[in-house]
Request: fold
Amino acid sequence: MSDRETFIINTAPGEEYAERFRFWQGCPTILRTPGGRLFAGWYSGGVREPDLENYNLLVRSEDGGMTWSSPELVISGRAEENYIAIDIQLWLDPRDRMWLFFAKIDCAPGSKPTDPDHWTTWAMVCDDPDAGTLRWSAPRFIVTGFLRTQPTVLSDGSWVMCAYDRSSEYLCYARSRDEGRSWERCRAAKRLTDSFDEPMILERRDHSLLLFARDAKPLLVSTESPDLTGATWKPAEYTCLLSSSSRFFLRRLRSGRVLLIRNDASRMRTDLVAELSEDDGESWKFTLPLDGGDPLLRPVSYPDAVETPDGAILIVYDSGRTTFKEIRMARITEEDIIAGKLTDFSSYRARIISKAPGNLYDGELYRRKMDRWQTWAKTLTL
Reply:
């Protein structure tokens, strides 16, 4: 089976992928092209995550995020082969190519998260994301591990990508020195707990590396390397930054300040905030609330963001994956974060860009899917 045949790549998705047929949706990502087009992606399918019927979807906006297309690309695994394709992650590289990463998970009975090939990261690339018709490369294996965050370009020209690996006791990442043609597996400090890591790396002004990671405890974990080589890392330690044991977002902005988006809550995924640091992540002086959420009915989580040339920060996240089933978007500026409130007339928070039905579209269909999921889930060790 070729790489292209390994997954089902649907470039003309039908009505079955419409919002009203989704029983849940979440884990979004966003990208802005050089021409100003926006792409967003997330995953859905089946009754929850993980599910053999899961699929990744891609939508676009030609008006800055005010309106969005129906799915124009859907990527799924092959249920008959007992693997799924989930967790789409978009990224624009320095050559303005759009990368679409996704994770392949082995769901065969007996497969375990600690198996080296249980989680693998794959990618497709579009050389011209502003074209009328997008042309994608065949999906190819990138690295062992599970990517859920954007890569980072370092000042030496190398790319680092934090695909975490549950088969390792270390916080893992990968480095490419040839613009993504090949990737070298690397490791940072030892993990403090066995958990989903979802790290992100920041290059500081002195060219040291700062790595933040999610942990089973509700605090972000950090470790540092003294130089770009990443040859040595300090032991990981807990920060004072709450995160609800959920994904966060870390990125240097064009101004030189560092942006951090996280859940400022200790237990449930509520209180999503955007923060700015002026001292390379040592302190976070400015905070803007983005979405309070609700601890039981409408948790908010998994932010992804992109900065536009005019300084706007576009953020997507999910809101109530299995309840309200919303993908939400915010447009803010650094000035908004510094003020602690919206000050720009174009800024907004918590705008819904996709919402699956509040009630089940087809109760009988849902029951059949749930019965199938429960039968399959008994074999899982995810």
User: Anything to note?
Assistant: The mean pLDDT is 94. The first strand starts at residue 8 and ends at 10.
